[in-house]
Input
Amino acid sequence: MKICRREIEKTVGPMLKYSFALCRDSDLACDLVQDSIVKALSARNLPERGDSYKPWLFSILRNVFFDHLRRTRRWSRYHDDTPPDDLDCATAIPVEQSLINRLTVRGGLARLSGQHREILVLIDVAGFTYGEAAELLEIPAGTVMSRLSRARQRLRQEISSDNLHTLDGMQIVQARKAAE
Amino acid sequence: MRQVSTRTETVNAFVDGELKGAEAAVFLGELAGDAALARQVSDLTRLKAAVQDSFDELPCHAPDLQELFDQYDAGGDRTGDRTGGWRTAIRRGLTGAGLRLLAGAGAAVAAVVLAAIVFFWQADGVARDGFVAQAIDAHHRWLTRPLPSDAPEGRRQLAAFQRLNDRIYVPDLSASKLSIGLVTRFGDDGVQVGYVGTRACHLSLFIRPTDTPGTLAMSEAMVRDSRVFSWRENRLDYALLAVGMDKIRLRLIAEDVLQATRLMQPFDRATQMALRLNRQKSQPCAA
Output
């Protein structure tokens, strides 16, 4: 069976974004994706269907990333960096449109734990379904749902905590204060 | 640990298009009569769009797929991949093709050995021209004639130095309870940044511009009583060293400083937490 190059071409963009979300280093992100594609090209067992390529390629990329973590002795940090779950989920934090700009969200994402950033990028950016994400991450679908909820809650909190800074020349009132 | 409510998870699932059939219908019914729920859906939808938008640009150029495909094609038909090829050659009792393959492998091994020798020669390059030796001397001068610790003044000096060279990034090590206590010129065009801890720790970071391009991996060495980490990044030589500091703590700091100088960014929250926890577990400095 021949490898389907078109599927690789289609997936390389989301792979780069996912890779960057994992490692937060643009050069390394590119290297990891390249290594993953080389691995994919030399794989013996290929997906049978075109729609199976994306999870398969992401799975290779994830393994390549964790190999990198092991080599650089940063493995434990990826797993230990989940911030304490002290969110009060009953309190909705309103997010003003003006606050949601690219820089703020990027900053907020950068401050999330690796696991939270990963689930957000898989679902929101790479377009994984909950089932696909569960398979890739080797966790139950229920855990995907709860992790995603926490990640979004955390991201909103991070965005809100950024609001005292001036963004785009505009002094923004802290959203949480506005909510009170 | 508080659990995220299943209600919130359901709202997320709706926003992600994961509710199907009857579930979706029930949710839509609730949504029609619940303004707070509608607001929550709206917030989450915008947040999702914002996350997508923040990844609009690729973080780097995509790898040249055509080149990778060409390399793959040049490697032969995939029905006889590399592993299979080797196995087949051995099974055939090293025929002419097999011997050529073996000769090729021998040449490849020799090339790898040669490359490794060159790499380690280069990796030692930061140390070879006396940079590390000068750094150790400067660090000891600071230890024997300590200047009064004045962090605000140190930061001012550093800011002035950075204005002269915008490639220099000096990380904030306060997460490891180390504050800048010294900034001084090092050699003709370098800088020494001295960090002072609360438990007798003194750590120096030396940065010196170099004309030699490329990156050198971090190397660790024990020179006299100093543990030194040195690397090259972005035409700058770095050396980080301390005397009598817990080596695991120093190694962690060195790895994080390397990462921060590579990214030109402050430590993220996880790194700060790791430094803080590591510092709590570490012994005070012996020097």
Observations:
- Chain A touches chain B through 69 residues (CB under 8 Å).
